[in-house]
Amino acid sequence: MTNVNNIKITPEIVKEHGLNEEEYARIVSAMGREPNYTELGIYSVMWSEHCSYKSSRFHLKKLPTKAPWVIQGPGENAGVIDIGDGQAAIFKMESHNHPSYIEPYQGAATGVGGILRDVFTMGARPVANMNALRFGEPDHPKTRHLVSGVVEGIGGYGNCVGVPTVGGETNFDASYNGNILVNAMTVGLADTDKIFYCAAAGVGNPVVYVGSKTGRDGIHGATMASAEFTEDSEEKRPTVQVGDPFTEKLLIEACLELMATDAIIAIQDMGAAGLTSSSVEMASKGGVGFELNLDNVPQREANMTPYEMCLSESQERMLMVLKPGREEMAKAIFEKWELDFAVIGEITDTGKLTLKFGGEVVGDMPINSLVEDAPEYERPYVYTDKRDAADVAAPADLNKAVLDLIGGPNLCSRRWIWEQYDHMVMGDTIQRPGGDAAVVRVHGTEKALAISTDVTPRYCYADPQQGGRQAVAETWRNITAVGATPLAITNCLNFGNPERPEIMGQFVGCLEGMGEACRALDYPIVSGNVSLYNETNGSGIMPTPAIGGVGVMKDNEKMATIAFKNAGEAIVLIGETKDELGASLYQKQILGEDAGAPPFVDLDIERRNGDFVRALIENGQVSTCHDLSDGGLIAALADMAISGGMGADVTLESDLQLHTSLFSESQARYLVAADADTAETIRKEAKDAGIPVAVIGTTGGDTLSVNGDVSIAMSELTAAHEGWLPNYMAKAAE
Amino acid sequence: MKSAVIVFPGSNCDRDMAVALEKITGQKPLMVWHQDYDFDKVDFIALPGGFSYGDYLRCGAMSARSHIMKEVIKRAEDGVPTFGVCNGFQILTETGLLPGALMRNANLHFVCKDVKLKVENTDSLFTNGYDEGAEITIPVAHHDGNYFADADTLDRLEGEGQVAFRYADDINGAQRRIAGVMNAKGNVLGMMPHPERMIEPALGGSDGRVMFESVMNRLG
Predict the structure, then answer these.
(1) How far is B62 from chain A (nearest CA, A)?
(2) What is the dihedral of CA A665, A666, A671, A677, to 10 degrees?
(3) pLDDT of residue A271
(4) What parts of chain A have a pLDDT lower than 50?
(5) Is A580 inside a domain boundary?
(6) Nearest-CA neighbor of A113 among A121, A233, B134, A500?
């Protein structure tokens, strides 16, 4: 075997590791000598954008992360909130964009695997998976292949581990042609007194490796995820990890079984940068050192070098620190589940990560320097120019415009996708995909969790600050619309190259808006992930800060859904419709333009209207509710009608032009349906509270009609809505 | 009615099955780990959905050759009511307790949705609670539910009343839209749809309950 540590470190090798000269000089100064090859590899992943957040940390610190119900904010494997009765919800969202573009099935599958591990590492049983997917324009030659592979990968992994994939969002836009986004979110449940953290403690305590063996897959995945794409990105396929959901299932069960005992001091999954990042994280949080004997690492392949073992991103592996004397008991549990279990080292008081291999020390690095000396950049930024309000024309044919939107790539039914996900396993999914938020019962209780993932990249591009606000507000609204109280969010911040000031300006603007919304809605951020360099050949994606919100409802029987339930009910519009067609879906898709300011997000009004609607649901006055978002009022009406299998007759009285009333994307609006008497009560209550309200029509019939100007048979509308995606995907087989 | 749920390492509908059995029979089922094949005598054995040993080989092929299945086969042959859902059905065909095989869905995609089923035999141990000609709604969630057997076998199954459920619409390419079959003796049923997921209105309906209640009626 060649000893890679004999390789002389040249400026070229440093550059290949994604480190610049200044960063390399910092390493030499921290170590007091030149690093060897293994050490250089370890520094390069620990200081990669993906692991160190070097471009984003400065701004992330400004986000609100606290509330009385927050048990653990950002900085651990996942965020933890108190949901009452001694129970906690643990959740996080993470990106797997670059690998999914190169190898869609494995990229997406291991994205799900990774986020599941982040959640069960903390002691939670995963109860729901969600995702936020963004693909290139439908006509792009790669799009079908990527949709097909990503959906199959998410399903292939989630279905096997037995955690329901209960919802998500999918959009198509040309800016993702060369750089798709695959963001996966997991929510788990734990008891508040049984939460596990990653801070190692106790000099001499054993460091234990469990799960799959280490192979040569995924080496430098974190570094790849921190660079722009170019035409030869396909060559990076070997850096994509390969997932094994069956092993993940075993790992979940084995870890939860061991967690029921008191043997674990600290635990951490091996995610990006594998063994290196997990050891460093655990040692750093605990203020201790780690000495690892790499000969004891379970290996899948022969002749692996220390460099490869430290940087492998082989999946389904965990690192734990056990209380002394508990090794045999723990080993028996992992043997029962037929998983590897190996004591690979111990905690030291040296403050160093010391690596031994074949009896020699092959790496010796100060932990502090790996974590705290990582560069932090305050990259220059320029804010996106504010746009003026746009004057947006009426369509040539109103009915056709409605049909094109409802039956188009961005508003059509995603049934083709979610029918490939087992969304019912575990027996607690009480609101399936297709509604405002997914709802899963807290097993064995009356409570339920509501979960929604959202962002509108068009708005973030037009006005990052408003877009950031809107992304947070929309999850809050979706959770409200099913009758739950929104509690906290996770996020996945997908942006282009932060070294470009205009991209950094988008990042800073979005974060400002997000922070404002979180504060105004008492809706803190408890975990998250940043994915930068989402560019191919210098062309960036639209700024896409995907938000995953979680809320709780006390009585799951009160839950609202979007479907019209009874004919003859009154339809009530809550909130004010303004002339806000700038950056709307209508403008972009029907007129092919992108101009003007996006809708303004008034957070006080958002909160007032949302609290009002939630109370209607909690009081049992309303069980049919839908928020208004992309496509505006007409899109919401169509969703409710199609889901309910009945039409609606609507009359709008407004000073606005009809196309504005129908397609405006003004925020803080909801539609509810109720019997006529209840609707009248709601109208009065809203008026008294100063909330704009109007009874706009009646459910029933087999036509969706508005003012006689829109009139579409439900059969035609439903066929358009359900047909687009399966028809599009069927063309792949041709 | 005392029941057992067989738990393979990759079972993932074992808890759902246990919840349904406890809710309906009022008795907690025995959860039998795949290595504990010397388990107590029970009135009913359930093989739940999931991916028993990962199913990287043909679904159910490895489980069919496991120790625990040797015991289940023995008991089923002795007449103990035995019921396999989804992966459980795949295992039962692989053991030969039930005829036929389950191939990859015709469109090659995993499918999870509510489907309409026709109850084809309302006299059996498992289906006596349904009305004759009943059409019920039960969800499916599988990648390999495309039932196949040769024409003679299919004719025999239909002639002997061994087809328990048939899909109202073609969802996976199954021969003659068969969703569930029984053995000749009528004490073994395998089906792709998941009745344990349809046992209360909050989950979308209660049509699955009747199947468990049918067995209880018969066993008393």
Answers:
(1) 14
(2) -150
(3) 83
(4) 1, 734
(5) yes
(6) A121
Bigger pLDDT: A390 vs B71: B71
Crossing angle for the helix pair A464-481 and A603-618, nearest 10 degrees?
Answer: 10
State mean pLDDT over B40-49. 98
Residue B95's alpha-carbon distances to A160, A331, A469, B69, B199, in angstroms, are 22, 33, 58, 8, 29
Which chain A residues are closer than 8 Å to B206 by Cβ? none
pTM of the model: 0.96
CB A570, CB A675: distance < 8 Å: yes
Residue type, A505: G
For chain A, what is the radius of gyration of the CA atoms?
26
- Tokens (6 digits) for A327: 């090794």
- Calculate the alpha carbon distances from A710 to A297, A638, A652, A695, A703 in Å: 67, 12, 11, 18, 10
Output the CA torsion B147→B151→B154→B158 (10° steps). Answer: 140
According to the model, what pLDDT value does residue A439 have? 98
d(CA B196, CA A428): 12
Residue B13 a catalytic site member: no
- Joined together, the tokens standing for residue A713 give 């048979």
**Count, residues in chain A:** 734
| Dihedral-angle region of residue A592 (phi above 0 means left; psi in -120 to 50 means alpha; beta otherwise) | left
Q: Select the residue from A127, A252, A337, A422 to test the B interface by mutation, using most B Cβ atoms within 10 A.
A: A422
- Farthest CA pair distance, chain B: 42
A157, part of any domain:
no
Backbone angles phi, psi at A43, to 5 degrees: -60, -40
Number of domains in chain A: 1
- Residue pair A540/A503 in contact (Cβ under 8 Å)? The answer is yes
Closest Cα in chain A, distance from residue B128 (Å):
25
Q: Mind giving me the DSSP string for B14-67? A: HHHHHHHHHHHHSSPPEEEETT--SPPP-SEEEE-SB-TT--SSSTTTTGGGSH
Is residue A705 one of the residues assigned to a domain?
Answer: yes
For the four alpha carbons of A718, A721, A724 and A730, in that order, the dihedral sign comes to negative
Structural domain for A583, as ranges: 560-734
Local structure of residue A235 (DSSP, 8 states): G
Residue A246 touches partner B, C-beta closer than 8 Å: yes
Q: In what order do the strands lie in the sheet with B30-33?
A: B30-33, B3-7, B44-47, B82-85, B188-191, B178-182, B163-167, B111-119, B135-142
Alpha carbon distance A504, A49 (integer Å): 14
Find out whether A621 and A612 touch, Cβ atoms under 8 Å: no
Look at residue A238 in the predicted model and tell me its pLDDT.
62
Residue B194 catalytic? yes
pLDDT in the model for residue A553: 98
A567 in a structural domain: yes
Nearest to B153 by CA among B200, B215, B100, B196: B100
Token pair belonging to A698: 């009646």
A95, A183 contact by CB (below 8 A): yes
Residues B84 and B91: their CA atoms lie apart, in Å, by 8
Locate the DSSP E strands across A120-229. 125-135, 165-172, 181-191, 206-211
CA distance A537 to A175: 12
- Sign, CA torsion A72/A74/A77/A83: positive
What CATH number is associated with residue A613? 3.90.650.10
C-alpha A621 chain-centroid distance: 33
Residue A452's Cα: distance from chain center in Å? 10
Q: Which residues in chain A are contacts of B111 at CB distance < 8 A? A: 419-420
